[in-house]
Amino acid sequence: MFWYRDACHADGEVPFDLADRGLLLGDGLFETMLVRDGIPHQAGRHLDRLMAGAATLAIAVERPVLQRAVTQLCAADAGASRALRLTITRGTGPRGLLPHPECVPTVFASTATWTPAMAFTPIRLVTSPIRRNASSPTSRLKTLGYLDNILALQDAKARGADDAMLLSITGAVACTSAANLFAVRHDRLLTPPASDGILPGTMRALVLDLAATLGILAEERSVGPDDLLLADAVFATNSLRLLMPVTAIDGTPIPTATSPVYAALASALRHSLDQH
């Protein structure tokens, strides 16, 4: 199902301007959120992040338009559980890098199949040769330019892993191709800060909230690869796959399955989802 110009469509064949900067330059942003039984999970956080990113890029999108896209798509899917993607571009304009001040943003959205089997799935990581550039503002935005992530994931799959672990230019742990990372050491939860080139994820924020509720000490600080190899548990988070226990990094086993901290957070997240 697709949403474009205040209407839902059964397929994605709608009029689209081939001069759109999102298509030509990757000049735009997106969010992907989980919809369970017709209710978008953490929609407020997703829209907040999208609006903040649009402000950073000076894309003049209106929040009510984004909200209508989410509401109308959820209604059209008749209470199903879906993955919902919301995309904005700067719109069309003259050729060249500099955006025209009168660009009108393009907004569209789509839904795809989501099943509970996609969540809480164990993963194996390998370290990617591709580094995250923490000096770039786009490292902290969910932009349409995802080629580094795509290349990192392709490389990881070719090496027999499930996902890639990306480091920052300084060698600190940043993220996977599409998820934030957490480590548990001595019952303390650690996660890299935004300053190490990560996208501050909505599920990452929820896990930090749950940790506070459970009385688990959590710290946002730089984490080295050795910190993960010595950890009691490592897991990745994103809005569709939720918490993914990491079972190995570069072939070294990680005992995440036996961690009571990971088990408590996973249980609390499942309970949180059931309440919405």
Structural class: alpha+beta
Distance between the termini: 23 Å
* Main beta-sheet annotation: 9 strands, mixed
Reading the helices and strands in chain order gives EEHEEHHEEEHEEEEHEHEEEH
Report the principal-axis shape: globular
The fraction of residues in strands falls at 25-35%
Q: Determine the fraction of residues in helical runs and give it as a percent range.
A: 25-40%
- Supply Rg: 19 Å
Number of E-state strands: 15
Low-confidence stretches: none
Mean pLDDT: 94
Number of helices: 7
Task: Please tell me about this protein's structure.
The protein has 276 residues and is of the alpha+beta class. 29% of the residues lie in helices and 30% in strands. The protein has seven helices and 15 strands. The strands form two sheets. Strands 7, 8, 9, 10, 11, 12, 13, 14 and 15 form a nine-stranded mixed beta sheet that branches. β11, α5 (202-214) and β12 (218-220) form a beta-alpha-beta unit. α5 (202-214) crosses α7. The longest helix has 15 residues, at 43-57. The chain is globular and about 55 Å long. The mean pLDDT is 94.
